[in-house]
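Section 5.1 Outputs to date
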Amino acid sequence: MMAALSMESFEFAHPWLLLLAPLAVLPLLRRRRDALTFSWLAWLPPDPWGRAAGFLWRALAVLAIASIVLALAGPGRPEVQVPRTGYGAEILVLIDRSRSMDTRMLPSDWRSIDPLNRLYHLGRGPQKALVARELLTEFVRERPDDRFAVMFFSTRPIEVVPFTERADVVQAGVAAGGVGRGLSDTAVGRALIAAAEKFNDRAYSGSRIILLVSDGGGHLDDRTQRRIAAALERNRIALYWIYLRSYNSPQLSNPEDVGNEMSPELALHRFFQTLRTPYRVYEAEMEEDFARAVADVGRQQNFPLDYFETLPRKDYSLHCIAAAALCCALLLAYRLATLRRWS
């Protein structure tokens, strides 16, 4: 890797300023006041220290001017991409931001509550969106080798963070979902198409998943289903759905329940089961269920992952400025010593 970096091209931010480089020869030009008149040169005693000092101050002046010109031109190493290998996956986190996500999950002890009084105690659970943000933030923090992207969706998909290995950026993107309130509609079909197409222009380097976090579903038309299935298969993407089930919502694990047959959640689940790419669903009624689902996703997606890390441009202007300042300081010291000697 270091060999690859050393062979990278060297660039200047303002190369036209290098036209000022000939100014560095000015200290080498002879001036009239530098000439002394003697009747016979043989009378001059040998002065090796004076010759060395004269050469030194001219060299320092040349170096100072040249360093200033280089600093103005902005030398540096251009932005490069370095291949890396880690263990993890490319994960696009697709988070439902509809109004239903502002409701609350079931409390941990909801099954032990008297059914006659259960409805009065369901509001004690944590907010769905808040639980999702907190646990997903922890999930990102614990997987430093993954590359994450974040999208929210309600009536339409919104890209928040493109694919990056910067965990702090991803965490900030997930936290941004707490701003404002969501809308009433949930266009999960459009969101899945947009999420799958984010992998279109990316070279396949390892495990890929879309982590869908939603409490709702949808009856998708045939054209939307075909587009979703084709995009997932083309980009070899696995789909994981963390289904945040509400109290009156259908159970995907028990489709024989009354009313399940017409529910959008079950319709979406059955469509996902027809995909030719891997699919898994997690039903989360309580915060503990969500935590177990996120942990299970983390255990499964831990395979070798090849990716490119973008290293920003490295500026060398400060080195040139430091060299020019040192030369000027030495020239000033030499001048002060010469004046003190003459006085």
